[in-house]
């Protein structure tokens, strides 16, 4: 298992990216639909009605799809592409990951803080280790993702991770087995690709 990857491989439908032409599992793509006003709408949760138009979870690919009018070509109809569509997708994905972690916290499936996370890892309660991208590398190396079937998320800042737990900042967090874990990992993997990062960055601070 690689850091920032999925919990496990699984069979899932594949779709073709309209920007790169590559076919890949749907989990690595952003779904878009054409709204009632013919405007391209990011469907982060994959639940909006209409024919899906898929683009790799990559800023350059999304920007290219808009610039080269690939959405219109794929939709076979005139469409309007919002300015800064890649920024919009990034912000929606960020909010989505934070909201999913917050749901896990409310369900008792997520904890924050070095001691609690260490306990969950020691007792093999944790399936996913989450650490802030701007937390100190020295502090983060004291914890390791679960060896068997576990995952690591390191694309959120301490402030963003903190907002999922109702705090100003959080450096270390963990998700329990089952529940929302697979969804959080999948969405976080997309966000990491959008941000061009998989692990963390040097900074200071530990909770």
From the spread of the alpha carbons, the general shape counts as: elongated
Spatial strand order of the main sheet = 6-9-7-8
- Poorly predicted residue ranges: 1-9, 199-207
Order of helices and strands: EEEEEHHHEHEHEHEH
Given the structure, what is the number of helices? 7
Write up what this structure looks like.
It comes from Pararhodobacter marinus. This is RNA-binding protein. Residues 15-83 form the YlxR domain. It holds the Pfam family YlxR. InterPro entries: Ribosomal_eL30-like_sf, YlxR, YlxR-like_sf, YlxR_dom. With 207 residues, the chain is of the alpha+beta class. The chain folds into 2 domains: 14-89, YlxR-like (Hypothetical Cytosolic Protein, Chain: A, 2-Layer Sandwich), CATH 3.30.1230.10; 91-195, 60s Ribosomal Protein L30, Chain: A (2-Layer Sandwich). The protein is 35% helix and 17% strand. It contains 7 helices and 9 strands, in the order βββββαααβαβαβαβα. Strands 6-9-7-8 form a 4-stranded mixed sheet, with helices on both faces. The chain has a 3-stranded antiparallel sheet with strand order 4-3-5. Helix 1 (59-67) crosses helix 3, helix 3 packs across helix 6 and helix 3 runs antiparallel to helix 7 (181-195).
In short:
With 207 residues, this protein is an alpha+beta fold. Helices cover 35% and strands 17% of the residues.
């Amino acid at each position: 298992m690689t850091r920032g990857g999925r919990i496990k491989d699984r069979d899932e439908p594949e779709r073709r990216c309209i920007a790169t032409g590559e076919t890949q599992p749907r989990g690595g793509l952003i779904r878009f639909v054409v709204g009632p006003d013919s405007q391209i709408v990011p469907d982060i949760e994959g639940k909006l009605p209409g024919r899906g138009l898929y683009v790799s979870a990559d800023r350059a690919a999304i920007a290219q799809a808009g610039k080269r009018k690939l959405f219109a070509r794929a939709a076979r109809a005139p469409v309007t592409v919002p300015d800064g569509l890649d920024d919009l997708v990034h912000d929606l994905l960020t909010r989505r990951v934070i909201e999913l972690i917050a749901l896990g916290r409310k369900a008792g499936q997520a904890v924050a803080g070095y001691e609690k996370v260490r306990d969950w890892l020691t007792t093999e309660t944790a399936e996913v280790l989450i650490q802030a991208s701007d937390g100190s590398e020295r502090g983060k190396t004291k914890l390791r993702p679960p060896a068997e079937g576990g995952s690591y998320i390191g694309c959120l800042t301490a402030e963003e991770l903190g907002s999922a737990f109702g705090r100003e900042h959080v450096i270390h967090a963990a998700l329990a087995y089952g529940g929302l874990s697979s969804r959080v990992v999948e969405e976080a993997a997309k966000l990491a690709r959008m941000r061009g990062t998989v692990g963390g960055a040097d900074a200071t601070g530990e909770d």
